[in-house]
Amino acid sequence: MIIDENQFFREVSIRICGSLEIDRALVACYEFVSQVMPVDELIITIYDPGIKCMKNVAIADSAGAHLSSEEIPLTPLLPHEIQDSERFPRVRKLNNVFGDPIIRHLAEHQKWPPSSVLVNRLMIEGKYVGSFLAMVKGEGKYTEEDLRIWALVNEPAAIALANHLQYREVIRVKDLLADDKNYLQNELRRGIGGMLVGADFGLREVMEKVRRVAPIMSPVLLIGETGTGKEVIANAIHELSHRSNGPLIKVNCGAIPETLIDSELFGHEKGAFTGAIAQKRGRFERAEGGTIFLDEISELSPQVQVRLLRVLQEKEIERVGGQETIKVNIRIVSATNRDLESLVKLGQFREDLYFRLNIFPIKVPPLRERKNDIPILIHHFIQKKSQEMVLSNVPTIFSGEIDQLMQYDWPGNVRELENAVERAIILSKGEHLTFGHIIDIDAPSYRWAPGCVQETQRLDELEAHHIEAVLDKVGRRVSGKGGAADLLGINPNTLRHRMRKLGIRFGRK
Fold it and tell me: How many folded domains does the chain comprise?
């Protein structure tokens, strides 16, 4: 059969380049090619130099076309020879497919009978990337005329394959970005941010350490009781670091089942275990260029501790079920409410990992050791919970009630205080907040003085009242040991600034 060269080139070029979805393009080609030459299948393959395998991309036959990702291993020598254009010319005809050192691997994998094949080796920027094949069952089915015609569409097929690969990469990156967006939105819903209340009072020393360590890469270990605000301190370290534009990924190590912790932290490859239907990036990969916060670090299993040690030492990970080493550029902040040194002595925590994590420890004091933060914390939580509950009026609190709350030790720390405020708002029914029925404290007593309104106070009024009380206690002395600033745990200059703002007189009359 005489084939019109111009028509063949035009039809195949339009069809193969007519869609970024290579399977659709291939089936359109098959519909035309099958009318002018013998063909049972059209196949496009690629060569992956990373794993030294040939992969089917798409296959079209009389029943239609489908995408494929099957990997076809090659013999050890072939990856080096496959680029050899003299041994393997750009276009070749195989009268017996099983006599070819490369295509026979495809034939054996596809379980072809004795067949004939036309091969277009596709080159992109001078590198071999794959092949465009026409296969028909039976030996010696193709003529030299078929080979000459098939060579005409070498470059259009290479362009179509390049476009398809770029398109798939764009889709992959788009999916990754969508995945990251959803993940970070979920983190934001969980309260990824946090206001650091008490930075100038009870947490002053903590914040001084945070400012020192934040700009450098050293790991930080936050030590403190449950509910002291270690997560908020981790936020501050990230925000004050050079990585503040990167992600802050948080992991509660005690909340993830032991069977899933490897996959959550390090990710997994498709097919790594039952249910792994797609490749998944772990938390370490998501934190690239930013910070990862590992809360409850003491709950990690010994196997995960070993892998975490490698991350700290080598800055690299491997996904579950994968063999590729992935470099990571992350800063690790960890936290614990347990004594890691004691766990090391008991053999429950790796000593080498402990020393790696404990380079710069920061102890977060419990609320009972910084009770001067209680008034401002209470008003912060009242504002926060009122917004969350969409209340038309912000509840108020008796000043005497706060004095009583400061006598309580708060074993649950800031978290217990926040929960107590929320319960008080719910039970208040729009009236003033009281806490006697919520925590074990005595009901406050109120003293009324003529011309003095004590029912409710704003935050600035309450703060002024508290500072005045402390000043009266120390004889109006601001600085020095035993002065008001010393008792309040605040810098004297900061206290004077607040007193000016609140209209509190100080200094010589």
Answer: 3
